[in-house]
Design brief:
The complex is a heterotrimer of chains A (about 280), B (about 150) and C (about 375).
Chain A (H helix, E strand, L loop, with lengths): L11 E12 L2 E8 L13 E6 L3 E6 L9 E7 L3 H8 L5 E8 L5 H4 L3 E7 L3 H13 L7 E7 L8 H10 L3 E6 L9 E2 L3 H6 L7 E6 L2 H13 L7 E4 L15 E2 L2 E2 L6 E3 H8 L5
Parallel strand pairs in A: 7-8, 7-11, 8-9, 9-10, 11-12
Antiparallel strand pairs in A: 1-2, 1-6, 2-5, 3-4, 3-6, 12-15, 13-14
Chain B lengths: L1 H9 L8 H8 L2 E6 L4 E3 L7 E7 L2 E7 L3 E8 L4 E2 L13 E4 L3 E7 H10 L1 H27 L7
Antiparallel strand pairs in B: 1-8, 2-7, 3-6, 3-8, 4-5, 4-7
Helix pairs in contact in B: 3-4
Chain C lengths: L5 E4 L1 H13 L3 E8 L2 E6 L10 E6 L2 E6 L16 H4 L3 E10 L2 E5 L8 E6 L1 H15 L6 H7 L3 E6 L24 E7 L4 E7 L2 H8 L4 E2 L2 H16 L10 H6 L6 H8 L5 H5 L6 E7 L5 E8 L9 E2 L2 E2 L4 H20 L9 H4 L7 H10 L4
Parallel strand pairs in C: 2-8, 8-9, 9-10
Antiparallel strand pairs in C: 1-11, 1-12, 2-3, 4-5, 6-7, 6-14, 10-11, 13-14, 15-16
Helix pairs in contact in C: 8-10
The chains are: A alpha/beta (about 280), B alpha+beta (about 150), C alpha+beta (about 375).
Chain lengths: ~280, ~150, ~375
């Protein structure tokens, strides 16, 4: 950058160090800023803008542990040209990076309270950093539940980690699928069914919800049903983004810019908006 | 009978039911258990009993030719296996199989239907508890069939 | 000369102003006639100003007409606004060049030449201030806007008449210029004389005025200028009742009026192109034929486009109704939540340049008259 004031639209170059397959169409890439060792600190819930040379740039939540500040993991589902290009990057290849952007999960507000984490599909990826943070300071939190819904057993993200967390008994982990296969012996049914079964104190609890918007609406309805007030529920919204810095206008959701007022919002702020069509 | 009454009153489904109704309901109940893999009921069977799960997990499934048994729902502690006992022709439309050792209160459907018919107040208390379950399940099923997560095509 | 002093300048003096600005290295932009409209372009001489012309504006209607005097600024605003210079419609951001082990990102210098904007109206000054708030006052600063904005010299012009679609009075954005200028002029054209009352707004303005021939203004000059403005204020082409407008619109998001306007709206996006405060943009990626150099540029975008709100699976706002509603509620209501002011300055361009003549003041009136709350 040559000009006197640096341009927040100019990416820095990072490098893919590892990549691995997660579930159909979904890969995690681990990247390191250049020069190596550059601090890449972020808050759980924030996202980066990732640029694939000559193709384009999209927002992807960071899915790794915020305590690991030199390398960042992003879990990407290949649904378009940019995401497919990013998911195809091999170790050693360069990638454009801008960020981190946005608001994070309310880990401080949740301290001293029960925590209920409700994730659907790829929504577990932006929540995983929050789970790591809770585990790192487990005694600061009350009962912690992770309720996860996936399409089918083959689509369960971070399967081994979920099993490990359940075994460690540090968290109450429940996984359910919409469509079972023969071999599946676990829960079958919408993730909302897990909410009424979970144990937590609705008067002293923080819920963090992430997944497809309709799943979040249903989950929030179920949480409200069991007594959580609107200001105890947080969700992560997603909208079209071209800049991530509040200038392009694409991510507007009512009066909010999802890139800078979100992506994590407290539900009382969004309740009225979420009931409206095409807002 | 006293132990059973206590168990019934502790189950989520009968929470808040008054003394008198509890005794009535008790008259239709018994304690049962199923080993892993055992069927609670099968599709087409008469819906003579339904089950309030106290411990364990039950898969509700249908047999699809060429695909075998497909589970569309699991129910666990505090939940109910079987709703078809409520409406004619009182026949099960799916299988229910224990996924693990399962203990339940079995309710004699015919007995309960008769008692509800004789005492409409009891009938209303039972309906008040059943309808929310049906609604919750319907809403959850909607989310399931909308197939919102994407992924395997 | 000091700030708030006033002077009288003749046509020769105005020509001299142009010369002084160019001598001082400014790139002078001002109104000129082209393609049957008055647009903003590079100009160097007062002869290029639309002398003796005026504009006739109404919903979906814009025509230039000859005046019966020789006023240089006897028209309202045209399809251009100053945002095309402060935030160019197409702007290269950076390029990436393939290297052995990846690629490098290179961004170039900003232009060094400063702008002198001649002919900025009160509504336009307000619009620039509104965009300053968007691009300079938030958690991030748009470095491209800033590079063009800082150091720009503004010669503002008080409107001698209101346009057919103007409603700056309703939006408290004019017609009298109050602040944000280096020099402000009011054109006084009578049978006896053709002069300009000049007001100094800043130190750089005072210095420029010092370099051009001028006379001190007399009381009657000031009175004549005030009369011009009073006449303009009284002849606005439109009006908008802005009382509680945010609550009105946000409380009526399901009003049937939105369905009615949607039947007319072509979602062509003209309103967003001509609006001086609309700021939405998109990015474009291109590479050269060899695939070794990839360029990223920023271009104007519009919330009216079909894929503006596209996320996997589809657009959030796919109906014309939802897109029109988004534009109007953002402009008049949620802009308050985001930036503390209205987004509208009452310039009327959206009314004039809408191919079907949708009138934002009429839309507000219709909702207000049959509001649910």
């Amino acid at each position: 950058m040559m000009s006197g004031l640096s341009d927040p639209m100019v990416p820095r170059v990072a490098r893919v160090v590892r990549r691995w397959y997660e579930t159909p169409y979904t890969w995690t890439i681990e990247i390191e800023s250049e020069p190596p060792g550059t601090d890449a600190a972020f808050e759980a819930g924030q996202f980066n803008m990732l640029y694939a040379f000559g193709i384009g740039e999209i927002p992807i939540s960071v899915s790794s542990d915020p305590a690991a500040t030199r390398r960042l993991q992003h879990t990407i589902r290949a649904v378009g040209s940019v995401s497919a290009a990013l998911a195809r990057l091999q170790p050693g290849e360069a990638i454009g990076l801008r960020g981190p952007f946005g608001t994070g999960w309310p880990l401080e507000s949740a301290a001293g309270r029960d925590v209920i984490i409700v994730a659907g599909g790829l929504g577990l990826a932006p929540l995983r950093p929050a789970i790591y943070r809770v585990l790192a300071e487990r005694r600061r939190y009350g009962k912690v539940s992770v309720l996860y819904g996936a399409r089918s057993p083959d689509d369960i993200l971070f399967r081994r980690e979920l099993a490990r967390w359940r075994e460690n008994r540090a968290l109450n982990v429940e996984v359910t699928v919409d469509h079972a296969t023969d071999a599946w012996r676990g829960n079958v049914g919408a993730v909302t069914m897990l909410i009424s079964r979970a144990t937590f104190d609705p008067t002293d609890c923080i819920a963090m919800v992430c997944g497809p918007e309709i799943m979040m609406r249903y989950a929030i309805a179920a949480l409200t049903e069991v007594g959580l007030p609107d200001d105890a529920i947080y969700l992560s919204m997603e909208r079209n983004m071209k800049c991530a810095i509040g200038f392009c206008g694409h991510c507007q959701f009512g009066p909010t810019f999802v890139c800078k007022d979100g992506p994590v919002f407290r539900h009382d702020r969004l309740r009225n908006l979420m009931q409206l069509e095409e807002i | 009978m006293e132990g059973l009454e206590r168990i019934i009153r502790e189950h989520r489904f009968f929470a808040g039911l008054d003394e008198g109704f509890c005794q009535l309901v008790c008259g239709c109940a018994k304690n049962v258990r199923f080993e892993e893999g055992q069927y609670l009921f099968r599709e087409g069977d008469p819906a003579d009993w339904f089950y309030l799960i106290r411990h364990g997990r039950v898969a509700l499934a249908v047999m699809m030719p060429g695909r075998g048994s497909i589970t569309f729902q699991t129910v666990g502690v505090g939940e109910i296996a079987g709703v078809s006992w409520l409406v004619p022709p009182y026949r099960w439309t799916y299988d229910a199989k224990a996924l693990e050792l399962t203990r339940a209160i079995a309710m004699d459907a015919g007995c309960l239907r008769d008692k509800c018919e004789q005492d409409h107040d009891l009938g209303y208390e039972v309906m008040k508890r059943f309808v929310p379950i049906l609604v919750e399940r319907l809403q959850a099923t909607r989310l399931q069939i909308l197939d919102v997560y994407g992924g395997t095509s | 000369m000091s700030i708030a002093d006033r002077a009288i300048v003749t046509l020769e003096g105005l020509q001299s102003l142009f010369e002084v600005l160019q001598q001082r290295g400014y790139r002078v932009i001002g109104p000129t006639r082209r393609d049957a409209a008055i647009v903003y372009e590079d100009i160097s001489d007062i002869a290029e100003l639309p002398r003796g012309w005026t504009d006739e504006q109404d919903g979906g209607h814009y025509r230039l007409k000859k005046r019966d005097d020789e006023a240089l600024f006897g028209y309202a605003v045209g399809p251009h606004s100053w945002k095309r210079f402060l935030s160019p419609p197409v702007l290269p951001l950076w390029r990436a060049e393939k290297r052995d082990q990846g690629f490098a990102v290179i961004s170039d210098n900003e232009p060094q030449q400063r702008f002198a904007f001649v002919g900025m109206r009160s509504c336009e000054l307000h619009a620039v201030a509104i965009q300053d708030c968007v691009f300079l006052d938030g958690p991030y600063v748009d470095s491209h806007y800033r590079a063009r904005r800082v150091g720009a010299f503004i010669v503002a012009v008080n409107c001698g008449q209101a346009g057919g679609t103007c409603f700056c009075v309703s939006m408290d954005a004019g017609p009298k210029i109050k602040s944000g200028f280096d020099l402000a002029l009011t054109e006084i054209v009578t049978s006896e004389r053709h002069v300009f009352l000049l007001e100094v707004g800043t130190e750089p303005g005072a210095q420029v005025l010092g370099d051009i021939p001028h006379e001190p203004a007399q009381d009657e000059d000031i009175a004549q200028a005030e009369a011009v403005l009073a006449r303009t204020a009284a002849s606005m082409g439109r009006a908008m009742d802005t009382h509680d407008i945010k609550e009105l619109l946000l409380g009526n998001l399901e009003h049937r009026r939105w369905d009615e306007v949607a039947k007319r709206c072509l979602t062509c996006g003209n309103c967003t192109m001509v609006c001086p405060t609309c700021f939405c943009s998109s990015v474009e990626d291109a590479s050269d034929v060899s695939g070794k150099v990839a360029m990223r540029s920023r271009r104007w975008d519009s919330c009216f486009t079909m894929d503006f709100s596209y996320i996997h699976g589809g657009s959030v706002r796919s109906s014309a109704k939802s897109r029109y509603r988004q534009w109007m509620t953002h402009k008049l209501a949620t802009w308050f939540d985001q930036f503390g002011t209205s987004g509208c300055v009452g310039c009327g361009r959206c009314i004039t340049w809408c191919p079907v003549g949708i009138d934002i003041t009429e839309e507000v009136r219709a909702i207000r008259s049959s509001a649910a709350c």
